[in-house]
Design a protein that fits this description.
The structure is a homodimer of 307-residue chains. Chain A is α/β, with parallel strands linked by helices. Chain A contains nine helices and 13 strands. In chain A, strands 3-2-1-4-8 form a five-stranded mixed beta sheet, with helices on both faces. In chain A, helix 7 packs across helix 8. The longest helix of chain A is centred in the C-terminal third of the chain and has 25 residues. Chain A is globular, with a radius of gyration of 19 Å. At the A-B interface, helix 7 of A face helix 7 of B.
Chain lengths: 307, 307
Amino acid sequence: MKVIAGVDIGGTNTKIGLVSPEGRVIRYNRFKTGSLPNFEQFILAIVEHINALVLPNEELVGIGIGAPNGNFYSGSVEHAPNMPFKGFLPIKESLKKHFSCHIELTNDANAAAMGEKLYGAAKDYNDFIVITLGTGVGSGIYCNGQLVYGHDGFAGELGHVIVFPGGRLCGCGRRGCLEPYANQRGVLQTLEELKPSFPESSLHGIEPINAKIISDHAHAGDTLAIAVFEQTGKYLGFAFANFMAFLSPKAIFLFGGISRAGELLRQPLIDEMERNMLNIYQNKLEVRFSELSDDDAAILGAAALVG
Amino acid sequence: MKVIAGVDIGGTNTKIGLVSPEGRVIRYNRFKTGSLPNFEQFILAIVEHINALVLPNEELVGIGIGAPNGNFYSGSVEHAPNMPFKGFLPIKESLKKHFSCHIELTNDANAAAMGEKLYGAAKDYNDFIVITLGTGVGSGIYCNGQLVYGHDGFAGELGHVIVFPGGRLCGCGRRGCLEPYANQRGVLQTLEELKPSFPESSLHGIEPINAKIISDHAHAGDTLAIAVFEQTGKYLGFAFANFMAFLSPKAIFLFGGISRAGELLRQPLIDEMERNMLNIYQNKLEVRFSELSDDDAAILGAAALVG
C-alpha cells in the first residue's frame, strides 16, 4: 500500500502519522521537539520515527510537513519564536538526504487549514480562517478557495497582528500581539491577573497548571476558570472583528488546546466580536470549532501537501 | 467605436469617463455627489452625464461603477458612512432601467486596485494592496493574482481595522479605526493637535484648509506641515506592519489626495512600519505611489469590470 507521512512539528511536540490513500491516519507516533540537542539530531529523530512507522509491505510516496514559520516556497522554517532551534532551518533539504520521495513543507497552521478544508468542517467553504490556539497562535487563510501564501510564503501570521498596542510582551519581542493573549502562556497570565478577584476558586494552589486543567475546572463550574475563558474569548473576539475587515471570511474555525473550553470560550468571543464589528459585517461571521481531532488535523493537512 | 463608461462614485465627487477599447479615458465629466437631493435624482444625474458624453458615432457597450461600500455580488451600495445617501442603494438595478448594456459595480477602492493592476504600477504584482486616502480610507486587495471579495463581497475595508483601540472617533461610529487618522479630516485633526507646538508656522490662520494646502506648505518647507505628514505616515506605517501579517503582499500602493505629500509621507511611514514589523517581514514590503492619475485610475478600474 502507498502511504504518505504527515509530520506536524510543534514548539512542544513533533507528531508523525502515516496516512492511507483514503485519507485516514493509520499509525502514528510523537516525540518532544525540545528533547533533541540540536537541529541535526532533530532531523535524524524525524527520519527514525518515519522509518519506524512504515511496514515492509508499505511504500512511502511522500512526506508533508507542517511547522511553525514553515515556508512553502523555501522548504525551511525561518526564525520561529516558539521553536527550540533558532534561525534558518532547511527541513525539506535536510530530509531529502534521507528520502527519495516527494517532500513539501508549510506553516503548521496552513497545514491545519488544509486538513480542515479536505477532511473537516471547512469542506464547503471558500473563504475561511483557521486559528490555532496552542503554544503559539497561528492561522491558515483560504481566500477564493485557495490557501493564501503571500508573496514570500509567510502570509497568515494572525497571532502577530498587534491588537492591543503597548500590551503584553510577545515571544516575537514586540508588544500587544494577539498571541500572548490567546496562547497557553497567555491563558495562564490571564488566570494570574484574575486570581485576586476570585479568592474562593478551586484553582488556587494547583501546580503546575495548564489550559486543560483550567478548562476542566471551568466545565465543573469554577467561576475563576470560567472568567479566564470569558476574558480570553473577549480578546479573540476583538481581534476577529478586525480580521473580518480584511477578508470577510464566511467562518473562523478554532483549533487546538485552548479551544477545548468550547462554548465557555465561544459565546463571550462572539459577543465581543459583534460589539466591535463594522456594521456591514454584523451577524455574518460564523465562529466554529475544528471537526478534526488535534492530532489528525495537522497530520492530514501536512500529508495533503503531497497527496 | 465601442466605448465603456467608468463611473467613480465618491463621497464628494462622482466622476464619469468614457474609456476606449485601448484603455484610454477619451472624455470625462463630474458632479458633486451631495448636490443631488436624493438617491433617485442622483441616479438620473449619472444617466444624464453618461448620455452627455457618448457621441452619435459611439456605441456604449458597458458601464462599470466603483462606489464606497459597493458590493459586486449585490450591485448595490450598502450603508456607506461617507455617502450623502444612506442605507441600501440599488445602483446597478436602478441604472439597468435606463441602459440595456452590461453593468457591474464594485467598491471604489477595488476599482482603483483593478485600474492599478491593469494599467498602472501593479501590472507585475500578484499580491498587493491599494490604499486610497481621500474622504475615506479604502482598500483593494489582490491575492494570488485575484481581487479579494470575501464571502459577501465586502472584503478589504482596511480603513475600518481598529489600529488604535479607544482612539479617534470614526465615521462608522467606532473608535480607533485607521480611517480617522489618514483621511482628509484625520489629517486636519492631526494639524490641530500639532499646531500649538509650531507657533511660527505659515499655516496658522489659513481658512478653509485642506490636505492639498498642507502638502503645498510642506513642500515649501513649513515645519508644521512637514510634521503633519510625518505623523500621518507614522499612523499608516504602524497599520501597514499589521496588514503584512495577513497577506504578506509584495507592495502597498498609496492612492488619493493625501498621498500627494509624496516622500514627506512615505519615508516616516516606512520607518515606523519597519520599526513595528515582525522580524520575518522586515525589509520586504514595498510602499509605492499609484502610477495612475487620481481621476483615471478609478474610472479605468471601474471600466475594467465590464471590459
